[in-house]
Amino acid sequence: xxxxxxxxxxxxxxxxxxxxxxxxxxxxxxxxxxxxxxxxxxxxxxxxxxxxxxxxxxxxxxxxxxxxxxxxxxxxxxxxxxxxxxxxxxxxxxxxxxxxxxxxxxxxxxxxxxxxxxxxxxxxxxxxxxxxxxxxxxxxxxxxxxxxxxxxxxxxxxxxxxxxxxxxxxxxxxxxxxxxxxxxxxxxxxxxxxxxxxxxxxxxxxxxxxxxxxxxxxxxxxxxxxxxxxxxxxxxxxxxxxxxxxxxxxxxxxxxxxxxxxxxxxxxxxxxxxxxxxxxxxxxxxxxxxxxxxxxxxxxxxxxxxxxxxxxxxxxxxxxxxxxxxxxxxxxxxxxxxxxxxxxxxxxxxxxxxxxxxxxxxxxxxxxxxxxxxxxxxxxxxxxxxxxxxxxxxxxxxxxx
Length: 401
Known about the structure:
By secondary structure, this protein is an alpha/beta fold.
């Protein structure tokens, strides 16, 4: 149990960190990374089989870490450089952002010291020299801070500014590892992650989302009818399109049908004229929604408003983006003429593209990553058999015929 001490400051006792006691074994600290580095290990060196392990990291440290944390692998490991880049942008003032508090733990009981400073009482948590706290939550963030300091591509000025930036953490002391494991569970399992729709709608730094936001307001058919929260549009809803589907449509205008690979992840747009993309996407989606508004509204009976079809519609729009401005009107009308031939009603003619049929005869919608390429071919490639099926046209003869 952390003890409150009013003894005089003794720098030999350990590292003193400004804090706010929450209860007898929980303390909220405000700490610069250069100080946090003195009381933690880089999570990377605590992994079994880690190379170049510092001399102060023992097998007992590695074992204790394994009792309260999962390994740095797969998605967690690949996220570290991205997280570090985000921290760098935030520290350097290139991007507004927020870092959640990390949760640190030790079996040892720590002491909280109370000092008077300029007439105010301040509290400091004392972490004895040699004692290292283990992150039971926020370990990817902690590893990212270490990664940033080790990045050989960054200048010393960046690292110094990062080292002196303040972080927030909650320290749990004097608790057995079984209790720390329970905390790991509570912090990682009890919370419900927001769905991708909400996450995307809240990302004000994504340039594509800025374009999508304006399009959703400026295309008359979509104004006030974009579902920004729910993963699915309810039957009695007045919404006609999901935010992530509109975003994927715009991404595919920039990247073609291969844009479906990005999903909810940021899509690179450094080589894209965003102003031109917005203009072309707004014009293309305006004429598409005006031409097929009835089919888009009939979500139960038609496929025109499904995410998979919209991904393909966006990819078709890339031909407009890459065309000279003076040719865009003609090309847009040619695309519409082709799409006017399509039978958007759900039926067997869409099997193998946007639809799959269950053993009971019901239709299910295939997702963009699964079937966007097939739908794109059905809408755009006159040499593809599905192109003729969805238009109820005679299928082209093959050499065997």
